[in-house]
Amino acid sequence: MLFGKHVVLGVSGGIAAYKSCELVSRLKKLGADVDVIMTTNAREFVTPLTFETLSGNRVVTDTFAEREEHDVKHVSLAKKADVFVVAPATANVIAKFARGIADDMLSTTWLACKSQKVVAPAMNTAMYEDAATQENLRTLEERGVILVSPEVGRLACGDVGKGKMAEPKDIADVILDLLRPVRDFAGKRVLVTSGGTEEYIDGVRVITNHSSGKMGCAVAEAAAERGAEVVLVHGNMTVPVPGGVMRSVRVRSTSEMMEAVLKEAADADVVVMAAAPADYRPKEKFSSKIKSETLTLEFVKNPDIAAAVGRLEGERKLVIFSAETDDLLKNAAKKVAAKGADFAVANDVTREGAGFFCDTNIASLVGANGQVRECGLMTKRELADVILDAVLENYGA
């Protein structure tokens, strides 16, 4: 849900620093790239190695540390950040931020950063309630900084009051609200198929269709980011299941995919058939490896999964894909009619930039009403949003 987003996390010196480890873990699971900046005092509570292991990036601690990269780190991180979060934020760093003091890597990067900023205070109750701290927090809020208020509870010093850092989940939710797109698919269940299926010939050989699974995964990722409950039914893919998917179902044969799709489609509001199921299967399957100089096989047609979905009772949007080598629009229109689909995403796989294994596509949306919308060269992730936009606008109806 945060794929392609960059979060810079500042960790200052407080016992709540241990909770920031969970925050990094949550952000990574959501797909974000995370860089951590630690103050000298923060290193007394959690080691940089812990954050490096969780984030997968080197932790920045020293403004003047030797570095291999030829960049000014506090400036480069400030420019990379889609959001800058400081958790925990002590009274000391809050005062620095409010007064424009830049005397270490964290405060220097903060001052250089123009992205959205978030602070999650954590300190003793008396320190939090002190007039100076409250004035500094008001100053930051007036400048557009988002404050994630501390909670009331038992503090490390033994006092009971307001000052506990907000839970990592709550901070992550604030970041999600800032960075994710409009959640216009909230409340909808989207079923996506992806990848290629296999039909066994013998103990070691299969017949299949070309498919990387990139397009289907892009649609699943986009739908999840836009608030949908996403189920991904997939065969072989060269890419992992994207984050945010509610459930993934791994299948091998076209028959297995059909069984899984029909089961899941009953509760789906939208079905996007981006997989490349094998169209044929051997009439006879050999359990042992065939050893022969020549091999003649008889094939039979596999069931049409999209057409079966189109015949299901109930209201749902059905989007199919039509990968062609000639007569693109004519063949796509025939498929839309035959399968009872709302529209097809048609692409000529012979065109440069529209192949199976590249990250881009060139497609046309062919509606059941004969409408055609040309989509130029774009990434598959961009096309995924175009497809979802078309679903919402009732394209093809």
Main-sheet strand order equals 12-11-8-13-16-17-18-19
Indicate how many domains the architecture comprises: 2
Rounded to an integer, what's the Rg over CA atoms?
26 Å
* Count of strand segments: 19
Query: What integer is the average pLDDT?
Result: 90
Query: What is the end-to-end distance?
Result: 30 Å
Morphology call: elongated
- Specify the oligomeric state: single chain
The secondary structure category is: alpha/beta
Main beta-sheet annotation: 8 strands, mixed
Low-confidence stretches: none
CATH superfamily of the largest domain, by name, is CoaB-like
Instruction: Kindly identify the CATH topology of the largest domain.
Output: Rossmann fold
Look at the structure and give the CATH class of the largest domain: Alpha Beta
Helix content: 25-40%
Q: What can you tell me about this protein's structure?
A:
It is a single chain. By secondary structure, this protein is α/β, with parallel strands linked by helices. The protein folds into two domains: 6-179, Rossmann fold (3-Layer(aba) Sandwich), CATH 3.40.50; 189-392, CoaB-like (Rossmann fold, 3-Layer(aba) Sandwich), CATH 3.40.50.10300. The chain has 13 helices and 19 strands. An eight-stranded mixed beta sheet has the order 12-11-8-13-16-17-18-19, sandwiched between helices. The longest helix is centred in the N-terminal third of the chain and has 13 residues, at 17-29. The protein starts with 5 loop residues before the first strand and ends in a 5-residue tail after the last helix.
